[in-house]
Amino acid sequence: MTQRRPIIAGNWKMHQNVAATSDLVENFLAQNYSEEVDVVICPPFTSLPNAAMLVTGSSIGLGAQNCHWEEKGAFTGEVAPSMLLEIGASWVIIGHSERRTLFGETNDTAARRAQAAQKAGLKVIYCVGETLDQRESGETFEVLRAQTGVMADLDPNHLVVAYEPVWAIGTGLTATPDQAQEAHLYLRSRLEIFFGPEAAAGLRILYGGSMKPANAVDLISLPDVDGGLIGGASLDVDSFSAIIRAAANCAAGE
Ligand code: PEP
Question: What is the DSSP letter of 127?
Answer without folding.
Answer: E
